[in-house]
Amino acid sequence: MKSNHTELNAWIEEVAALCKPDAIYWCDGSQEEYDRLAAELVAGGTFTKLNEAKRPHSHLAFSDPADVARVEDRTFVCTTDPREAGPNNNWCEPEEMKATMRKLYDGCMRGRTMYVIAFSMGPIGSPIAHIGVELTDSAYVVCNMRIMTRMGGEVLKALGKDGVFVKCLHSVGYPLVDRPDVPWPCNPENRYISHFPEEPAIWSFGSGYGGNALLGKKCFALRIASTMARKQGWMAEHMLILGLTNPEGKKIYVAAAFPSACGKTNLAMLQPTIPGWKAECVGDDICWMKFDATGRLRAINPEAGFFGVAPGTSMKSNPNAILTLRANSIFTNCALTEEGDVWWEDMTDEPPTHATSWRGEPWTPESGTKAAHPNARYTTPASQCPVIDPAWEDPAGVPISAILFGGRRPGTVPLCFEAPSWEYGTFLGSIQASETTAAAAGSVGVLRYDPMAMLPFCGYNMGDYFAHWLSMPGRVENAKMPLVFYVNWFRKSDDGRFLWPGFGENARVLKWIFERVEGGGKAQKTAIGLLPTADAIDTTGLSIEAEDMAELLSVDAQGWLDDMPAIRAHYAKFGDAIPERLQTELNNLEARLNAVP
Ligand code: GTP
Ligand code: SPV
Ligand code: MN
Q1: Cα–Cα distance for residue pair 426/419, rounded to 1 Å
Q2: Which domains does the chain have, with CATH numbers?
Q3: pLDDT at residue 260 in the model
């Protein structure tokens, strides 16, 4: 054993006795180790090595077509009392789930190596960081975890002999008994992504994809961390973090919660189109916030890499992402070009004439199918991002001045508006809705309520989660809460075109938010909150029709009223768990909307 941590060693022995791997391997997190595992994955057909001249030190993997995204219907929160998990989670009694899963785990690693991945979510030693250990039978997971987390020997050292860690168990569920391995082993008929917040522990089985398998991400940093944050008085959120500097050199930090595939990575790395403004990236998916001694929320990005949506990413839409993934990256379910590079829809103006699709089949633009899967992803080191913030690894975190909620709303929700209070901001987060995307298995384009973009990620009863948000200002004597805004880049015209150009132009909205934080920026009181006045958003140099701008900044009172029954039904799902204060905010909003002439 490579650790003198008694509990860790005992757990590894216990898991090995159950899963019966041929070997146990302790990951040191070195480059040499990564290269060796990548070479093994190439030899086994999981990885294709990309053209070294075009995409140095990078690989492409095609998944099994049945294993392409998070599986929310197979994701469970296992608590003694079902009320704790809440209607937002699939619930199972912990011992019952363990009995079911133990049968699946029994011998599931036969013929394979079990890798021990010690990882830190957040800079090692940061007071906001936490440690996990993932046991997995997937070398693909090891390679991804090395990019996405701080992993290996340093973390084991930090753990010492009795440090606290979250137990994360993962198996692809494809033992090699009387059969050869396949490029993407998985077990789609028996998938379970189970969380045991009372321990805390994570048991994942049957999938090798993204958030199902890279357990530091959604399972730990959101579902388990949200339960820890609730107990300990901090916040674990599905938010990007960015630094924004005005032409005078004043800098603020902003966090934004948008649902999966709704623009976090793009906003986190945006290239402002307005002169003199600078945006820098701290993180693109997850944000952990704790109060500092001065009463400000300080945030860290617990991750070390980006697991980003590839389709739609281009030098036009997100140049900083394209520059980040120029090398040392893993691509999953992207297409392979004849030159041995990757491609995906809208990466270039002209598609390649021939490629190999994510299904491993010959593809041409005439094929009538997508070359890359809509949830194709890149795994790439944050340190390679040209606009990575100088403080992105600061153990103390960065102070957050504003929180943004948003999602895909073709109608009703204006381009941006501000909540006049933390309580109303919490209310807005609680009724946040968005069209579903390919980031999760299931239907796409269906409007669903996704409070704080946490519906699939909150590890406990969402009503209690709202109460936790409301309780934050009272947790310290001198709380200086961030301002809360609601934004919508996805408003559409009647003929289905986006009214707002989005991407780098979103800097224009960020500028207004910056001004509001600094005590300026023009806003008018409306039924739904503080809306920018007609001239408050800087549109200098932007060609946008005055009518489009007017629609983007209008209050569609009837549209909001039409939503009321759905909002009430959404609340009703949580019953008594919805805090009184939010019910009041909802009633007051409805009354104000009814009073609009
Ligand atoms: P996860 O990694 O799943 O959490 O997604 P994310 O929230 O980071 O979403 P991402 O930034 O990867 O964007 C997803 C999709 O939204 C991409 O296809 C983008 O091109 C598109 N998108 C992002 N920002 C904008 C925008 O401002 N306007 C429009 N119209 N589309 C956008
Ligand atoms: C998301 O779905 O929000 C993601 C991708 O960031 S995954 O890691 O698969 O959860
Ligand atoms: Mn995400």
Answers
A1: 9
A2: 6-44+73-233 (3.40.449.10), 237-304+391-594 (3.90.228.20), 305-384 (2.170.8.10)
A3: 95
Q: Which amino acid is at 123?
A: P
Is 489 close to ligand 1, i.e. is its CB under 6 Å away? yes
Average pLDDT over residues 513-518: 98
Q: What is the number of other CB atoms lying within 10 angstroms of the CB of residue 372?
A: 26
Give residue-wise pLDDT tens across range 342-389. Answer: 999 999 999 999 999 999 999 999 999 999 999 999 999 999 999 999
How far apart CA 460 and CA 197 sit, in angstroms, is 9
| Ligand 1 neighbour 284 (Cβ under 6 A) | yes
Does ligand 2 lie within 6 Å of residue 439's CB atom? yes
Confidence of residue 2 (pLDDT cuts 50, 70, 90): confident
Residue 156 has pLDDT above 90, yes or no: yes
262 part of the active site? yes
DSSP code per residue over 537-581: S--TT----HHHHHHHT---HHHHHHHHHHHHHHHHTTGGGS-HH
Give mean pLDDT, residues 147-167. Answer: 96
Output 247-251 pairs: Cβ under 8 A, ≥24 positions apart.
247/275, 247/276, 247/277, 250/518
d(CA 208, ligand 3 centre) in Å: 17
Q: What is the pLDDT of residue 391?
A: 98
Tokens of 35: 């290269």
pLDDT above 70 (res 252) = yes
Distance, in Å, from the CA atom of 146 to the CA atom of 151, rounded to the nearest integer, reads 6
| Confidence label for 220 from pLDDT (cuts 50, 70 and 90) | very high
Q: Which two tokens stand for residue 468?
A: 């936790």
Q: Is 264 a residue whose pLDDT tops 60?
A: yes
DSSP one-letter string for 488-508: -TT-B-TTS-BSS--GGGGHH
| DSSP result, 89-103 | SEE--HHHHHHHHHH
pLDDT score at 106: 98
Residue 285 Cα to ligand 2 midpoint, Å, equals 8
Q: Which of 174, 175, 220, 213 minimizes the C-alpha distance to 192?
A: 213
Q: In sequence order, which ranges of 221-263 are alpha helices (DSSP H)?
A: 225-232
- Kindly give, in sequence order, each residue whose CB lies less than 8 Å from that of residue 520, ignoring residues fewer than 6 positions away: none
Which residue is closest in CA terms to ligand 1's atom 11? 263
Does residue 1 surpass a pLDDT of 60? no
CB atoms within 10 A of CB 313: 24
